[in-house]
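Duplicate of #3305? Posting structure anyway:
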């Protein structure tokens, strides 16, 4: 089974940017859809962004205009570009890859937005 690993998290000041990466151990085309989720402290996990194997992207209304999702098939990596970060974006960010038979999660990466 293809495994996923997130990276790129860290601490940033409000208004700053980070780019998260989700690298697959195999081809990302193994997944029909890949998603980014986040789980803020003490809250439920929420969907942030989706990208399909056809390249269709959707981002949550709460991050619309600030976050973008993209992929690089050569690098087998999906990215989440996060701009104009706010304290409420603080969370553990997870990527997820799915097909009709596979549901794979990464281990998560911490993003902290604080002055």
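Output from current build:
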């Amino acid at each position: 089974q293809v495994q996923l690993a997130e990276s790129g998290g860290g601490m940033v000041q409000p208004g700053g940017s980070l780019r998260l990466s989700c690298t697959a151990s195999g081809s990302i085309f193994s997944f029909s859809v890949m998603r980014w989720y986040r789980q803020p402290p003490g809250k439920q996990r929420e969907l942030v962004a989706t990208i399909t194997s056809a390249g269709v992207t959707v981002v949550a209304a709460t991050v619309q205009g600030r976050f973008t999702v993209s992929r690089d098939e050569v690098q087998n990596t999906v990215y989440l570009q996060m701009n104009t970060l706010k304290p409420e974006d603080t969370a553990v960010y997870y990527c997820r890859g799915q097909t009709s038979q596979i549901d794979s999660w990464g281990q998560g990466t911490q993003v902290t937005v604080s002055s």
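Confirmed duplicate; merging threads. The two ends are 40 Å apart (CA to CA). The chain has no helices and eleven strands.
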